[in-house]
What does this fold into?
Amino acid sequence: MDHSGHGMTMDLPPFTLGRGLEWSADPFFLVACLVGLGLYGWGVVRLVRRGDKWPVGRTVAFVVGVLTVALMMCTKLNDYGMVMFSVHMVQHMVISMVSPILVLLGAPITLALRALPTAGRGRKGPRELLLMFLHSRYMRIITHPAFTIPLFIASLYGLYFTPLFDTLMSSKPGHIGMMVHFFAVGLVFFWPIMGVDPGPHRPGYLMRMLELFAGMPFHAFFGIALMMASEPMVGTFKNPPASLGIEALADQNAAGGIAWAFSEIPSVLVLIALLFQWYASDQRQARRKDRAADRDGDKELEAYNAYLASLNAQGR
It folds into this structure.
């Protein structure tokens, strides 16, 4: 398969981590990452200048999330990913599962809502348009688990086990579109689960955990299917360049192992984040109840004690 539109991928030497991490920027993703970091930085600076606080941890999470996208798409990992199934699978897993989680932990929508100025009565500026978008029927649909879980699964089976993957990989716009799709699917899947930013679909913590684990087994099964296959299953990677010194089936088995492993790692990360959020939510609720008790002289406790006293009187 000719990959000449994506750089000199046909003459790549055997893969090593050092070679994979060499600079080789995709212009689209380089600009997108710089714009994302710039806008986020503008929002943080705007809050700080007016005396508001923004958690450092959120900023770190967002920056690292964007840098993981840059690492996958602006180094020679992207070049090797055009001809090596295993390297491509690393790109896919990071961009669809690690990068979105980190970006969402950075709460970019919350930052935008706090940093963007209001347009004034009767007018619609960027903040008002963002709020309309968040509350739209479209957002309710694409963040609902009945949509996100099948989409998450279809992005594996419907892509790699059909000719669609080979079609997208045959052109630079197709490859870019596919990577953007991976990132977008990760965002809409993990957004309701992470629960940091406001959104139309916000289930309880137990339901979020169920949503998280609903899609992960399919990731594992996908990886196992690749590892157990007796012949190459994806046309793009059936005939790797001789200069790489690899065998297509072994490379596919490695790709399957990567997909299987990545079904576990993000799950653990998200589960830990959810448990921390759950604990923090319980602490906030307890503090609110304590403040309410201080204000009203603990009327709720007095009412409960009166109720117990009435039961006791009836039992005599």
